[in-house]
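Open question from group meeting: does this chain pack into something compact, or does most of it stay loose? Before anyone orders reagents, we agreed to write out a predicted structure and look at it together. Recording both the input and the output here so the notebook holds the full record.
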Amino acid sequence: MKKALIIGIVLTAVLTFFLWKMLGTEAVLIPKPKGYFRIDLPPAAYRNFEANCPFTIPVSEFATIELFDNEVKGDSCRFNIFYPKLHARIHCTFLPIAGNINDLVGDAYGFAAKHEMKASAIERVWIESTDRNVFGIQYNIEGGAASPVQFFLTDSTQHFFRGALYFDFAPNPDSLAPVLKFIRKDIQKITDEIVWR
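Structure tokens returned:
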């Protein structure tokens, strides 16, 4: 009886040792899916922004305005709509039209076309509001392009407003999707409610 008990203990110890050696020393490697940080976005709230330029636009309460006083030349002006927590900027430029509407529209198209190399698609959305005298195009640039949204707005005779969205880091369309959706709503608000003065 004692021999059977001793043999049972020894066998149990040997089996435990081998099981521990097989399972305990080498970890089973399982790849984890790629994940992204959760981004909490605030509810949409806007304020009117009236620069020293002849227009008024709605700007998100979540954003700040970066003015470039040294860049004001004549009737033109430049500023950024900066989203500090999202590390994003909408670069905005206003230029008066002086018989150069074709050049301004061509430049806006050229700036968007520069992203074709990295873009998987470029969607052009026509903007037309005859009651507010606002016309333009919004370029939604899909893929790994540096600027996922660009747009211009004009009344065709006096005012030309251009905007381009950029992030402070390399674009990753998967991780940027909720942020891009949030900022696209703000750009839509600008195109829907810009008022020339």
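Observations to bring back to the group:
The beta strands are 46-49, 55-60, 64-67, 77-83, 88-96, 119-129, 134-143, 149-154, 159-167, 195-196.
The CA atoms of residues 63 and 84 lie 7 Å apart.
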